[in-house]
From TrEMBL, chain A:
Pfam families xrefs: ABC_tran
Highest rank taxon of the organism: Bacteria
SMART domains: AAA
Annotated ABC transporter domain residues: 12-243
Keyword RNA-binding: no
Stated family: Belongs to the ABC transporter superfamily.
Protein name: ABC transporter ATP-binding protein
InterPro entries in UniProt: AAA+_ATPase, ABC_transporter-like_ATP-bd, ABC_transporter-like_CS, ABC_transporter_ATP-bind, P-loop_NTPase
Keyword field: ATP-binding, Nucleotide-binding, Transport
Keyword ATP-binding: yes
GO molecular function: ATP binding; ATP hydrolysis activity
Source organism: Lichenibacterium ramalinae
UniProtKB/TrEMBL annotation, chain B:
InterPro entries, alphabetized: MetI-like, MetI-like_sf
Name of the featured protein: ABC transporter permease
Topology term for the membrane: Multi-pass membrane protein
SUPFAM superfamilies, A to Z: MetI-like
GO BP terms: transmembrane transport
One cellular component (GO) term of this entry: plasma membrane
Gene3D superfamilies in alphabetical order: MetI-like
Length: 268, 297
């Protein structure tokens, strides 16, 4: 592991994590030998070609998938299933269409038995924090894509998670909205004190957000390299340092993308 | 944290008057095509009668079978006093007959919907229960409801129960299987959200799966509505002792073609109104389903 020993115990620890799938065509190794430590309040981005298993690793950490080798722990406890210490933001809109935005945001609290009145006032607070103060009584389909993802974030933050797992959360948004949402996410990160694990295949997004970028190889997904990003925030995408880093990541990724393509052509 | 300005504001509210105008224009257009469609159908029939192709005794056109409304209504009177003719009580009898048939359909639909959705949920919630019941249900599902008629009479005799049972049975197996397939098709993302939020299995069913499957189940219910109307008529024709189905049988036995077509018109109208009513319920209860998915006229 190419990181300095830290005095504090890591929040998330993956040791020798592997994931295989049995399919009709044989065994597919999605992930192999993943070793990764994530500190509290750290912003880590998973970057890799599509199909490299970076989202799979996120789902393993979330506890929604079962690993086939290795261990994952969160806050010192082994991950055996989903837990409210780990929030997850999905790629597509995941708000329930049968609930108002406010009800969606406090859904986790409802499951814990919190009363309606208390939830209503909490929903108002949470929504104000994500800039959706007036949206509590709206239906999810009355919001734009960016607003829906903010509401999904408010829903995850309602349970005060220690880490927020984000699976390409801005992939479906247009470029302008995406850039706004990245600024917004940095604010959420600072405010909440949670760690962030963010999956993307956009190099600029990775450089713009991360403390460290974890670069994955094409299938089977392994960690190719971990690149620290030491640029001060807010980051200027037009600065030479930003460009140098994104060029470096582009070089790292190029081989993997080529391999992923070759693999797809071979299968096809 | 300061609230960031919205990157994209809420959709601008379209002036409600414009919406209303668009709606009323569309309403007029729909009404126009309805009138034209039915007018053409009746017109062709009348023309066939006018040129002598349609025998007024066998295929009386609308103006004949709708003409003697009160006489027709007389047939619905269950009075067995021969020669007693009272227009008021005849209309009442007509209404009573329609209500009787409708109530059987409503009772059967309500019972069938509740039981089948409940059954489907139980099958998926308790795995062993599913293992023990599902094969039998799958095997019973393709049996036509009509084949259940003798069974209905064996068990319930005559009266309301066999008719309600028939509606129930026409719905139960189809809807149970549909419930199961809908549960299996619930979006992985919704289930994951529930799991991440810490939902127990019971909470997952209650707060995620049931609301997620309701819209398509209601759609299935509407699809089966006309089927329910068919079997209730068959049940009534065979031995309930009242209802629109019995009148159809009476028309057949007395070779009264006018009465037959008159009753058919009633059946069509009532069935149509039922569909409209169900759609209204659907719009109210399932407010989150966009109207385009509910199906327009």
């Amino acid at each position: 592991m190419d990181r300095p020993l830290s005095a504090k115990p890591p929040l998330i620890a993956c040791r020798g994590v592997g994931k295989r799938w049995e399919t009709a065509g044989g065994t597919v190794t999605a992930l192999d030998g993943i070793d990764l430590l994530v500190d509290r309040r750290e912003f880590v981005v998973f970057l890799g070609p599509s199909g490299c298993g970076k989202s799979t690793l996120l789902y393993l950490i979330a506890g929604l998938e079962q690993l086939t080798s290795g261990t994952i722990s969160s806050g010192g406890a082994e991950v055996t299933g989903p837990g409210t210490d780990r929030g997850l933001i999905f790629q597509e809109s995941s708000l329930f269409p049968w609930m108002s935005v406010g009800e969606n945001v406090t859904f986790g609290l409802k499951l814990r038995g919190m009363g309606t009145d208390e939830r209503r006032s909490l929903a108002a607070d949470l929504l104000r924090k994500v800039g959706l103060a007036d949206a509590a009584d709206k239906r999810p389909d009355q919001l734009s894509g960016g607003m829906r993802q903010r509401a999904a974030m408010a829903r995850a933050l309602a349970l005060r998670p220690e880490v927020l797992l984000l699976d390409e959360p801005f992939a479906a948004l247009d470029v302008q909205t995406r850039s706004k949402m990245q600024d917004f996410l940095i604010e959420v990160w600072r405010e909440s004190g949670a760690s962030m694990l963010f999956v993307t295949h956009h190099i600029d997004e990775a450089v713009g957000l991360a403390d460290r970028v974890v670069v994955f190889t094409a299938r089977p997904g392994r960690i190719k390299s971990i690149v620290p990003v030491d640029l001060p925030r807010p980051r200027d995408p037009r600065s030479p340092a930003f460009h140098a880093l994104s060029d470096h990541l582009t070089d790292l990724l190029r081989d993997e993308v080529d391999r992923a393509f070759a693999e797809q052509e071979r299968v096809a | 944290m300061k609230a960031l300005p919205l990157s994209a504001g809420a959709l601008p509210a379209v002036a409600s008057t414009t919406v209303r105008r668009v709606r009323s224009v569309r309403g007029v257009a729909v009404a126009f095509w309805w009138v034209l469609s039915i007018g053409c159908f009746a017109g062709l029939w009348e023309a066939a009668w006018a040129v002598g192709w349609a025998d007024p005794l066998l295929l009386p056109p609308p103006h004949i079978f709708l003409a003697h409304f009160s006489d027709q209504a007389q047939a619905f009177s269950s009075s067995d006093v021969i020669g007693e003719v009272s227009t008021d009580s005849a209309y009442l009898a007509l209404l009573t007959t329609i209500v009787a048939s409708s109530l059987r359909v409503i009772a059967g639909l309500a019972l069938g919907f509740t039981c089948s959705v409940g059954m489907g949920l139980l099958i998926r919630y308790f795995k062993p229960f599913g293992n023990i019941t599902l094969p039998t249900i799958t095997l019973l599902a393709p049996i036509s409801p009509i084949a259940w008629l003798p069974v209905a009479i064996f068990i319930f005799g005559i009266g309301n129960p066999p008719a309600i049972f028939m509606v129930f049975i026409s719905l139960f197996f189809v809807m149970t299987l549909s419930t199961i397939s809908q549960i299996d098709a619930v979006s992985r993302t919704y289930l994951n959200v529930g799991a991440i939020m810490g939902a127990s299995r019971r909470q997952l069913f209650l707060h995620v799966i049931i609301p997620a499957i309701l819209p398509s189940l209601f759609m299935t219910l509407r699809m089966n509505l006309f089927g329910a109307w068919m079997v209730v008529l068959v049940a009534e024709a065979t031995g309930v002792g009242s209802g629109l189905g019995q009148i159809v049988m009476l028309a057949r036995n007395t070779f009264n073609s006018s009465l037959s077509f008159f009753t058919m018109t009633l059946i069509g109208l009532v069935g149509f109104l039922f569909d409209v009513a169900l759609r209204q319920i659907q719009n109210r209860v399932l407010f989150w389903v966009p109207p385009s998915a509910v199906g327009r006229l």
